[in-house]
Amino acid sequence: MARVHVRSDVTLDEPFLVEGLPGVGLVGKIATDHLVDEFDMTYFASVDAEGLPQVGVYDEDSREALPPVRLYADEERDLLALQSDVPVDREAAPGFADALTNWLADVGATPLYLSGLPAPDLDVDEVPPVFGVATGDAATLLDEHDVGLPSEQGVVGGPTGALVNRAAELNLDAVGLVVESDPQFPDPAASKRLIDEGIEPLTGVTVDTAALVDHAEEIREQKERLAQQMQQAEESESSQAKPLRMFE
């Protein structure tokens, strides 16, 4: 059974949630980790589901052991962040999506789901494009802030796709933000684009993303082990966007 375990009280008013499950280029995870660190967000809940690795994680210079999938909150900015230090596999994805979606509906949160679109030919100096899709009435948010439209038909897969699917089934407001990204290595530049072109305008929160450029190589090294784990996982278990022509 999947559950959200609330561990401390926070006061939020129709917050936005930024989702950071590991996927292509680790774009969502890098962006979400940056928000948690930049705003010193408060850890207040964990998410558990059958099939999730039963592990404890710890951080540098800290004695606290934590569950691998956690929710953080910033009351001042009315912001939530979903941080995961493990991949969510195929077995866990449906229950995970049900539990998180039901909880988000209960608290009145609008989720921003993040995916990388593999772009193996993306030039290192090229600015990766960002586009958005939506469920419920959230498309108006994308239109109001001029977030780009998809250039071709596609699908969001993996656990992030399960979350988007569940929101669509229930006709709940949710946004999917997709950025072209490196399919093999952690991509801080693509994560910066997600924040600058999607998360920041949609949430109304100002985020300093200079560190994602200044410390890009350090971030890549920190995330490389998780990226290798993701490469070893089956493609269907990895959160990513794909053009439908790949299935033709």
TrEMBL record:
Gene Ontology CC entries for this record: proteasome complex
Biased composition (Low complexity): 227-241
Keywords from the UniProt entry: Proteasome
Chain coiled-coil ranges: none
InterPro entries according to UniProt: Proteasome_assmbl_chaperone_2, PSMG2_sf
Region (Disordered): 220-248
The protein's name: Proteasome assembly chaperone family protein
Organism: Halospeciosus flavus
